[in-house]
Amino acid sequence: MRTATKVLIIAPAILLGWVALSQTAKAPQLGPEYTSDGQLRLSTNYREWVYLSSGFDMSYNPAMQMDHHMFDNVFVNPEAWRVFVASGAWPDKTMFVLEVRGAESRGSINQKGNFQGAAVMGLEVHVKDQAHFGGKWAFFGFPGRDVTAKMIPLSENCYSCHSDHGAVDTTFVQFYPTLMPIAKEKGTLEAAYQKEAANR
Amino acid sequence: MRTATKVLIIAPAILLGWVALSQTAKAPQLGPEYTSDGQLRLSTNYREWVYLSSGFDMSYNPAMQMDHHMFDNVFVNPEAWRVFVASGAWPDKTMFVLEVRGAESRGSINQKGNFQGAAVMGLEVHVKDQAHFGGKWAFFGFPGRDVTAKMIPLSENCYSCHSDHGAVDTTFVQFYPTLMPIAKEKGTLEAAYQKEAANR
Prior knowledge:
Two copies of one chain form a homodimer.
Chain A: H1 2-8, H2 18-22, E1 40-41, E2 50-59, E3 70-76, H3 78-87, E4 95-104, E5 112-128, H4 130-133, E6 137-141, E7 148-149, H5 157-165, H6 180-186, H7 191-198
Antiparallel strand pairs in A: 1-7, 2-3, 3-4, 4-5, 5-6
């Protein structure tokens, strides 16, 4: 999820209020839903999902320069999380949401460091779906206030990066501190990841 | 919650694995539970609660110097969160957990910025409980691997700071980006907070 951020965020957009309004919706969806033309519908209740972790100004590019600080928050649907806790593996219908927020500094009593701002600057979804992608994973980016999105083409480098470096099943479990011990215990770390980690 | 961090963390402690192990526990508690001598029992399933936000190196002290970076993550019990979304106010039995984690830098594909480490460096709980504190709030700190804690005395400055500066009912809703719009819409911001914000 993380590495896709730099590729997919074309124009930051203010989504203030949008998530809050959607939080009271009834009958939240339990798995990925699609439009008749195959676009993924955004799970607007994702802030009720299980939180995995946050990063601050993360980048795989050491030359990356930004004129502002950013947080990214990652959530996973609770059904998938429960399976991972029990098995160390992601089931069919797993969905991640990566939410990018601008970092604010001084405000209220805060004098140092950063807190998260109201503006959602980017939103991406990573879905595992047997019925739609043959059990493989697909990425979707939701710019602006979009609530449906076409699948990002397989030629984009988010796919190859996740495949080459994800600790478990193309996902960056190495950045999710409560899940990494489970993957180690259950023996589900990818061989390529273990080799990469051993060579550092 | 945030300001209490600097007061309460006496000795960082590694809690690796402890949360993960507890995540599979059955019948999670729905409200605060206490020992026979009045200590609060830690809700070890708090990583399944609703995530509110994270900070990075936050401090109310501009002279604060640390030799490392820190994240703090805040969670609230889902029952209280649902009431807040509907009303902008916290019900009885609201519980917050503030989790402090060390920040790591280079690792795997990450070349810049920070991600959260496995070590939980501090854990604090803020509880609103009519039956125990007359409907007021109490703070509890859980150092090391403790799963019960005595109430922090009312003389500690976490109470006065939260009371003086919390945007809603002694809580720092001003740092929770999905809740602040709700408090504004519902008209539940404290007068003292609004005055302070207007004078900035």
